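Predict structure. Chain length: 228.
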Amino acid sequence: MEIIFENEDCLVVNKPAGLKVYGERLENSLLRRLIKISPELINVGIPPRYGLVHRIDKETSGVLLIAKNNKTLEFLQNQFRKRKVVKTYIGLIQGKIKPPRGLISSYLTRSPQDFRKQKAVLIKEKGTERMAQTIYRTIKSWNRYSLLEISPKTGRMHQIRVHLAWKKHPLAGDPLYRFKDSVDPKNLKRMFLHSQSVSIMMPDQKIKTFQSSLPEELKEVLDYLDKN
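Prediction complete.
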């Protein structure tokens, strides 16, 4: 696990895909691994999240922030609550989305058909739906796929995945929201979604941007699309 940045207040890691961030019974979760390296993290926050500032899905790779003390945890989470954090993801979708750049806005609620999934709806009906907004921009397109830069303005569970599937362009390799007739690019063995950067104000009142390059296994998929 690559350490992108570390000081007395914060730890920023490059999470690999396939590793769950936390869980009550997950001894092999990212946080449990970090606690074995830095046992003092067990005193931060509330188990099982401890000093976790935000989360990304198990299938997603990239930038993740962990606070090393309670004061920093509250400060950084407050930035997320106030929507002052700029997050950028890179994702490969099925097809070509129209328009090539735009804002996806809807409410999200638990899917009645599958408790693991979220569902996008336009109107509040039960009162438990939560507003979600996702900005996207097409970087490049091929015959059957498009590479997007994605910036969620809100931080709902599975937000990017749900919004793109709702627009009929699910992420390539998504095990949960893919369509039955989805065909992934050759050699893609994971969901193509990567947390590329997070810009946030730190306790010293300076805005810092943490970045992570696209993993090699995803670069290889793009190289294949370019050549074929």
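Summary: Residues 2-86+199-212 form a domain with the Pseudouridine synthase fold (CATH 3.30.2350.10).
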